[in-house]
Design a protein that fits this description.
This protein is of the alpha/beta class. It has a single domain, classed as NAD(P)-binding Rossmann-like Domain (Rossmann fold). The chain is built from six helices and six strands, in the order βαβαβαβαβααβ. It has helices at about 5-20, 35-50, 75-100, 125-140, 160-165, 180-190; strands at about 1-5, 25-30, 55-60, 105-110, 150-155, 200. The strands form two sheets. A four-stranded parallel beta sheet has the order 3-4-5-6, sandwiched between helices. The protein has a two-stranded parallel sheet with strand order 1-2.
Length: about 210
């Protein structure tokens, strides 16, 4: 498990162990400042502890501020692209050798509806999600005849802090929770989706 906050990683670690599952590896990492060596170390940790990697979920994302593209801040743009695109590309690249050791590996990227159809004022975030969709499609084409598959999930409107920042006046209780979306993520991570490659799925039925 990779995350920016050690305390949160440790809490999830405890939940997994207390539920009787094998001990996971936890790797604290801030993707804004991550280096190639950090990614190589991550791959080495996984290979040493588990020997292979059966699934990779690229889920990290930052929103930045919403507003016209004409007025976006260059540093904000760079940070969004680094976390939402560059870091995910570098992690996927670094972990490819351990993914290849699996008989049925799945890579999942978390996308967004604004990464499929542009929307005013979503600026760098929307651009980054278009890039994620394109990255997924490119990876999927390249691994089509291997034991690895690559897909995207659009979570839709979900009760998260990012959603609250984008829609501060919205009724949070009316939104799906992250737990509600798990069936779609688990499907793409499981052997049930072994023939699914290069697809962008919606985690929620569109109304």
């Amino acid at each position: 498990m990779l995350g920016k906050t050690t305390n949160k990683l440790e809490c999830v670690y405890d939940e997994i162990v207390n539920a009787g599952y094998p001990k996971p590896a936890i790797v604290p990492m801030d993707l804004k400042g991550a280096t190639k060596q950090n990614y190589r170390d991550l791959a080495a940790t996984i290979e040493y502890q588990f020997g292979r990697l059966d699934g990779l979920l690229n889920n990290a994302s930052i929103l930045g501020s919403l507003g016209p593209l004409e007025h976006f801040c260059s540093s904000t743009f760079e940070n969004i692209m680094k976390v939402n695109v560059t870091a995910q590309a570098m992690i996927t690249k670094a972990l490819f050798p351990v993914l290849r050791k699996s008989d049925n590996a799945s890579i999942v990227f978390t996308s967004s509806g604004v990464g499929r159809k542009g929307r005013e004022f979503w600026g760098p975030y929307a651009i980054s999600k278009f890039a994620v969709e394109g990255m997924m499609q490119t990876w999927a084409c390249e691994v089509g005849k291997t034991s690895i598959r690559v897909n995207c999930i659009n979570p839709g409107a979900t009760r998260t802090s990012m959603r609250a920042a984008a829609y501060p006046g919205e009724d949070r209780d009316a939104l799906a929770t992250p737990e509600d979306l798990m069936p779609t993520y688990l499907y793409l991570m499981s052997d049930d989706s072994s023939e699914v490659n290069g697809e962008s799925l919606d985690a929620q039925v569109k109304k």
